[in-house]
Structure formats: structure tokens, C-alpha cells
Amino acid sequence: MRIRALPLLLLTSCTAASTTVTPPSSTPAPQASAARARKLEAATPMQTASSTPFTVSAGWYVTEDHGRLLLEDPERELRITLLEVPGTSAERAITEAWKQTRPDFALPVKLSAHPPAQDGWDEIFQNTYDTPPREARVIAGLARRKGDTNYVILLDGSAASMDRRGAQAAQVLLGFKSARLAEESFAGKAPLPLTAERLKSLESFVEQTRQTMKIPGVALAVVQGNQVLYEKGFGVRELGRSEPVTPETLFLIGSTSKSLTTLMMARLVDEGRFGWDTPATQLLPDFALGDPEMTKKLTVRNTVCACTGMPRQDMEMIFESAGFTGEQRIAEMRQMKPTTGIGETYQYSNPMVTAGGYMAAHAAEPKLPLGQAYDRVMQTRVFDALGMKSTTFDFARARKQEHASPHGMTLKLDYVTLPVSTEEALIPVRPAGGAWSNARDMARYVMLELTKGRTPEGKPFVSEANLLARREAQVKINDTMSYGLGLMVGEDHGARLIHHGGNTLGFSSDMFFLPEANVGVVLLTNVQGDGPFRNAVRRKFLEVLFDGEDQAQAKLDFALKSRKEAFAKEMTGLREQPELEWLKPLTGSWYNKGLGRVTLQLEGSRAMFDAGEWRSSVGEKREADGSSRLILLDPPLAGFDFQVQREAGRTTLVLEMPQQRYVFEKGDGPVSSVR
């Protein structure tokens, strides 16, 4: 039970759990068709009867049948059916679409969503359907209505395929729309002056939204060219304490650190230490993946492009981190394999960026251990040179400065303070997400981006060519956004936008700038999972800048309502105090080679899960199919679940992730793993 609000299908790919599965028996089988599928040899523009063109990626299978399009991913584990259904109800159109394509479809609806109609649509409706957890499957229906035509998308796929091919699917989902839409567009629109009155409107929205979401602390900065127009702290550094957030308060910025890592790389390319297309093994000869051919092909550019086909794989660093070094994290990658080809589709990988940052620093400081080399190069080439006086990867130094505390989200959607030590899992992977920074320092970085490589004082810092090389699209995320080198590049309603957000176990961040408008924003919070907040603030900023339609509040209200409903649904049947008869046989030590040793033990009336670096109380959930799961009740991983599987007299605990499956066996494991 990875408890999270399921986003609208058209906005992002859905992520659930697990590896490849065959279509489950509870899922109605697709209807037979005389039409034959054809495999696309190249990315191909397509359209249905009255829609505007959209693009289907190379390698996908396409079946055209009675006005419908069936799209299947290259592995044929993900099916997307597109059809147009007449009528004035988007909800009824979904029902009619299932009748047309699979008359025996009878899965119960798990969640329905009816968001505000925006971007020219008259109505939007989505259903997600209940499937047994062990089937690791996502089934959904989405209808968007314009006039009396509904543009319906039916999706059915394994969770692994959704994770692996989600970016390619998103290009279709966003592109399948009416040619009659009058979408809001900021393209070519002159930005308004960011007057004190307009900035006050943004400030009021930030503070109101912060209070609505019960976020303890926020820091915000707005820059234009090489000037800071606005900087302010909101709220407190830690729940239950009075110290206020200021523009100098340090926050962990998570994956926003990636843009700083690639900035360091750009400076080293300027120095001639290597080129963007230098082979990775030329910089770090011992580097290897679980795929020898991929290892040979990999370049410096590939390590930070999210385009290598390496799937997201973060559990190793969360479960086993105490005392780990950069060298050990790099060595782990020998067990990691790509699931798609280089350049084929967007897949986000923290280990790849970790490797890229370390190998780049090693080229400049080859005599130092990887972590020390990276810290020194980042300090000298980036932080000191740019005047980012407080930014650091050193947790001890951050603790001595004005800093915020991390906060995790509970299953009741409240926040609780976490120990700063909870975040130390980032230390050995810091090139991908371990920087502490504040709004004032990050504003200097954004000004550097806006001035194309000059410091706010006008001094040359990095060549324009290598700064801008980071903004060149490497792989598409959807039809409006691509990934560059440690930056997301694209547009929002026609306005050129470059950004990168970040999430840790108890902090979140966002950094975005609009080059043509010459403005940028830094947003830092001391909570886990503030997605609705960041999205709403970005939308509000665009409304202020371009006099856009008033949508930010409605989008926020819908996102929070959907999240609340999703949590409530998943909490149904959850027992916070498991039955002792069921739980006692599960107590003791459990071991997985990749994630190490964990223990489950009784402490008074509570059952506690102990991973070493963090602990959580445990609940129990029985599913309709008779299976049982252990549910972590406390942050930082509240809502994560372990399936209890009993087969042939053997009991295991299974943690399912989108493209990984971690099986824990009873026992301590190798002696070296015991902490």
C-alpha cells in the first residue's frame, strides 16, 4: 500500500508496484479483434477521427479497429485504447467505452476524480479500478469532453510497464485532444512588471496555502536578471518551536542539487578535464553496470540525462546507508541493469547522477576518495566561486548554521518532526540530492542561469555554450517537457520553462526560471510530499506574471481533495494494532541482500519495524483476496507495505517497487550485514 493520491492520467504516469505480470484472472480479457497490430519502426504522428495529431513512440504496436486505436508498449504489457464517444457526460462516456471495447469489464471503481474543467475542456472525469495488490496492475479510464464529444482513454498495464514506459505513454495521453480546444497560452505574451502589488499577491497566496496544508516553514525568492526582487521566509523552522524561517535558513534541496552537479560538470568541461561525450569508464575505469554493453556506451552526458534506461532504484540508499561511501554506492551499480535502451525513453535514476557527479570530480581531484573529491570541487568550482556562502554538503556544518528540521507526513496527512539524522542516507549519494542551501544562495544560482553564465556581479563564471548545453533536450518526458542535463526543459502553456524540483524524506524544493521573461523562482519547504503546494505556487506565479486565468486555487483544492480521498480509501480496513496471533510468527530478523537486515519486534502493545537508520510502528491490512500486508505507520516511509507471502511452508516479506522486487528471508543474513 504505497499510499498516495493517484494523479490524473493525462498529467503523469501512474506508479504502483512490482515486476512483469501476466494479465490477472480478475481482469477481463480484451475482446478479440480481426484487426492486426503493426509495430512502428520510428516515432509516428497519428490521430483519430477529429483529434489533433499526437505522436506514438518507436517500437510500440498500433491496432486500428472501428475508429479506435489500441496502443501497446514494446513489451506488450501496457495497453492504451483511444476512442471518441459522443455524449454530454464524461463519466458515462467511460462506461460506454468499456462496453465497446470489453463488454465483460466489471471491475469495481476504486476512486473517481472530477477535476475542474480547464485548458479549454468542458468536463474531465477519471476512474481508477480495484485490482488485487499482488497483481501489481493499474487500470484506469479517463474522459475529457469538448462539446458533445468525449475523448476517452482506457489504460491497462502492469505497474512495471507504467513505470518503464510512462513518459512515452504521457506523450499520447497529453496529445490526444480536441482540435476545437481554445487552450490558454502564454506564448509570445509579454510578462507584466513584477510590482510590489503583484508580488504581494503571490506572497498572500503562498502564506494562505502554507497554512491550509499545515506546512511548518517555507522560503521564497523571486529574481529578475541579476537582481533579487523578493525574498522572504514563512512559518517556523520546526513544529513546536518559534524560530522563524528566513531567507538564510538552510533546507535540504534534494534533487534540485542535480542542476548544481551539472553546473560543476560544465565548468570542468570548460577547463578541458573531459567532454560531455567522454566515455564514463575513461574517467572512472572501475565503473560498471550489470550490463557490459551499456557500460561501454555510457558517456558523461548519459549519467545526467535520465535517458539511459536505468530504472529508478532508491531503496538501497534508504535502507542501507550508515557508514556507506561513494565508492560503495558506485560498486552497487554492478547489480543494476537498464530496462530500456539509451535515448529510448525517460527514466529517472539517482544512482546514475551519483556516478556522474563522482566521476566528474574524480577527473579534477584523482588522488582523493570520491566523496572528498566531489565536496572539494563543488566548494571551489561552484559554491565559493558563485558566492553561495552557506550552501554545503556537510551535515555537521549545516547543523551549526541556521537550518530547518525535516518533517514527514503521517497517514492522517499531518506532519511530524524527524531527526536530521534521518536524512543522512543522502550523504553517499549527494551528487544526486544532498545539498543544503537557502533561498538567498539559490537565488544567486538562478541569476547565473538567467544571465547565461555570469555571476550577479557580472563576472564570467562558465561559458555560455556549456551552460546552455545542459538545457538541450535529451529525452522527452511528455509532449511539453523534456529532460536535459540535470534540468527539465520545456514549456508551461507556451511559456519557455526550465526547472528542477527535489524531495527528500523530510524536505522539498523547487527551482524554476523563464529565460525569455528573465525571471526565476526558488521555493523551499521543510516537509515531505509538498507536491500540491509547489504546483499551486508555480501556477500562481504564472498567473501573476502573465495575467493568466485564475486556476491556482481550484487546482490546489482538487489536488488536496483527491489526496485526502485516496488516503481514506487506502486506510479502510487498516488495523493499527495487528492481531498478535498473526504477528508473533513474523517477529525477529529478516534479511535481503540489497536492503540488508531489518527486525520486527513487539514493544508493549506496538509492533515496531526497525531498519537501523529509521524505525516505524506497524499496522496490518487484510485484502479481499485473503492476502495480508504489514503497513508502516510512521514517517519517513508511512504507507509503505510488505506483503506477507507463505508458499510451500516458507514465509517471506516482499517489498514491491515499480521495477524491483525485494524478498526478505527470515534470519540475520551474513554476519557483515548485522549492525
UniProtKB/TrEMBL annotation:
Please state every residue range assigned to the domain named Beta-lactamase-related: 206-536
Report whether Cell cycle shows up as a keyword of the record.
no
Task: Output the Pfam families linked to this UniProt entry.
Answer: Beta-lactamase (PF00144)
Which SUPFAM superfamilies does UniProt cross-reference here? beta-lactamase/transpeptidase-like
MF annotations from Gene Ontology: hydrolase activity
> Which positions make up the signal peptide?
1-16
Membrane-crossing residue ranges in chain numbering:
none
Under Gene3D superfamilies, the record lists:
DD-peptidase/beta-lactamase superfamily
Which controlled-vocabulary keywords does the entry list? Hydrolase, Signal
- Protein name (Swiss-Prot/TrEMBL): Serine hydrolase
Provide the species name. Archangium lansingense
